[in-house]
Fold each of these.
Amino acid sequence: MKISFGFNTIFVVLSCAWIAYASDPSQLQDFCVAVPDANSAVFVNGKFCKDPDMVVAEDFLKQGLNNAGNTSNQLGSVVTAVNVNQLPGLNTLGVSLARLDFAPYGINPPHTHPRATEAFLLMEGTLYVGFVTSNPADLNQKNKLFTKYLNPGDVFVFPQGLIHFQFNVGKTNAVAFAGFGSQNPGTITIANAVFGSDPKIDPDVLAKAFQVEKNIIDYLQAQFWSNYN
Ligand SMILES: *[C@@H]1O[C@H](CO)[C@@H](O)[C@H](O)[C@H]1NC(C)=O
């Protein structure tokens, strides 16, 4: 009995050791449509790599994140991103960050990062933050909301792809920094994508989807859906 158990244990351990990982690499932007001719290509999955002999320290440096962003907009918040588009040295390295500034009662509206989890550190102010889970398997259950009030020094995690928001509930400015597990996390602001797309989504589609009269959709689509994040 004992010998048999030992053999089985070894067999299981060896089986696990042989598990191979074979899949396509994860995407580094929304899409990468193939072109037949390399000369007409713009980038690969990510960006092209600079000749290592030509790389300089400045390729890994981005300055100015000590400066507050300009929150004079209708949301009262602004995101200063430092991803591969601002800091080329991040290419292929799988991380990036951002500074977030909030005026009193400013909001970073519901949005998702399709390619990254976000670790969010509040430095100043008081924020009400939260995220919502994806649709549950059980038809009787609802998407679940997780929220917290954050104070300086608090870190909150927004899991990859989930809709989340941050709202300044204090009477002072708020400042936060966010780390992302992607060189290019991407942002989909829900209202902008749904009501502010170019061209517009057929209002009949949205009226049915949101279970409202078409004039409400017409109103929403007529708004100015600007992008500060
Ligand atoms: C902030 O943005 C507003 C609106 O675009 C602009 O009027 C204002 O001059 C900006 N302030 C600074 C300090 O850049």
Note: The chain is about 15% helix and 25% strand.
Amino acid sequence: MSDSKRLFETATRLIPGGVNSPVRAFRGVGGEPFFVARGEGARIWDVDGRSYLDFLGSWGPLILGHAPTAVVEAISEAARRGTSYGAPTPLEVEMAEAITAAYPSIELVRLVSSGTEAAMSAIRVARGATGRPLLVKFDGCYHGHADSLLVKAGSGGATFSIPDSGGVPAPLAALTLSAPFNDLDALRALFRARGDEIAAVIVEPVAGNMGVVAPLPGFLEGLREITRAHGALLIFDEVITGFRVAYGGAQALYGVRPDLTCLGKIIGGGLPVGAYGGARQLMSQVAPLGPVYQAGTLSGNPLAVAAGLATLRELGRHDVYATLEARGAMLERGLTEGARKAGVALTVNRVGSMLTAFFCDGPVTDYTSAKRADTARYARYFHGMRERGVFLAPSQFEAAFVSLAHTEADLEHAARAAADALASLSR
Ligand SMILES: *Cc1c(COP(=O)(O)O)cnc(C)c1O
């Protein structure tokens, strides 16, 4: 029996589903997860000594790849000075300076320990500032697992807000309305019906959690206009896109300025961090300046901030995002070519170094069109790639992340593996 199999057997007796976050359990593709021993650059090794070219990138944070020297050194150095004090440290100031310099919409920023915390705290600020109870999100967008965010209301959302999760009381779910992504008319309808109760619209400006879906031209601008007209706030959840699609995130790439921004993933350099921020006046709602309470024992943790800052320093170098764009485009071309030769219907959505290959004809512009993807086919493709030494997200509705550690040779290898795996699908 392999070491991974043995570990998974023990894990399933002790941990729900054997995993500490559900999608790691491979339920979306079948089979059992392998256990990771280590990672270096673009590769990971499992406990049985097999190596994989990794496009999961820990679900987004690892834009430099695994164990980059600068980050490992920054963490080691910080650890030698102590791991947490519950009192301010100099690097937190440096992180706040780095974030506010890169995101002009953020004047004050608060560090937290996860993207979930960032989103729920930003929403609390929006509700505190507007005195309104309702939140609008978009179908297929994920903003962490806080109670009232686990909702993807059915059509007509205003009256049927049904929680996606057990344990979420219906009255909490009822505070969240949901509209189709890229559909401004649906959003206008929600605002016409209940506009004076809506505190904020929260959106992944480039969706990553239904697979990658870019905003259609005018969508983000429309959100800005509609929220402003109704006195509601606009929250960009840039937990994935922040420092990923551009150093200044999707708000820099598309030139739309939100009221509040959530960050996470990359700014922790692979350690647990989140952040939320916005205009000084708005963020002055947050305790101890204002009445909106939010706190954290490990917030601004010295190791996590050191790892994040080391990552941002590398990303601040010349041409980094041009390189990521070029590598992302290479992977996209490889997949598209492979699918064409194999005669497999595949729609590749990509923004810079984040990409999803949907197993369906395009376009994929929202959750409904994403759901047309053939998940059984994706599962076979996933396992085919895994057998060929390439590790992808174990679900169709996730992104593949290209890092700066992926060389052109790595991407050629991935494209060849994909061509083979896709060809075997049509046989
Ligand atoms: C990952 C993610 C979150 C949640 O972050 P965690 O650190 O997992 O709590 C929130 N929003 C988006 C867009 C994400 O991708």
Note: The domain at 3-67+319-425 is CATH 3.90.1150.10 (Aspartate Aminotransferase, domain 1).
